[in-house]
Amino acid sequence: MKVTNALGMVFSGAIGKSIVASSWKGIQYIRAYAKPSDPKTERQTKVRQDFSNAVKAWRALDARQKRFYDRIAKGISGFNLFVSRFMQAANSRRSPELPVIIHWRTEDGLPVEEGMLVVRKSGRQLFADSLKEVEGEIALTPSDTPYTFLLKRGARKETVLTVSDLRETDWPSVLTSRGLGLRVVLDITPGLEVEAGPE
Fold this sequence. Notes:
Layout: E1 2-4, E2 10-15, E3 19-24, E4 27-32, H1 42-60, H2 63-72, H3 78-91, E5 100-106, E6 115-121, E7 124-130, E8 135-140, E9 147-153, E10 156-163, E11 173-177, E12 182-188
Helix pairs in contact: 1-3, 2-3
């Protein structure tokens, strides 16, 4: 913000350690510089630590997990959505929810040139993986269900599964479209339990 005084001098931001040029509701003004307070209360220290942990947890996510948050976020970034949820969980003394990695593969292990596995939530496409890759991964959270799974072959597509609770889904799960001649196996890492999401 630039402020011009009566003598024509232009000020912007902090001027030394004594005054600051700023504005409020479009009105430009100059005020005395006030050193920000940092009382380092127990609450502030916890919030800062939780935020630091949230950023570290985001960095530890793999590309598919980050993509999940980027796709479901509305009006904010996937990073901001993840950090917000992480902070809410920490504030409620709950374990933060992380997306579950779900592995997929064509049942016969063969590529399908025009085949696709599509995952949607509320009409928004989260993942669209080509079956010519034979196998891949998606990442989903239990708290964001329901998810709709579709199989596509060329211009034809078929909804094959709607998941309302990842915890109650039988793993492995086989997606089958007789009309398209496609079978895709979904599975999570053996021994991994899908934990409950935020309440």
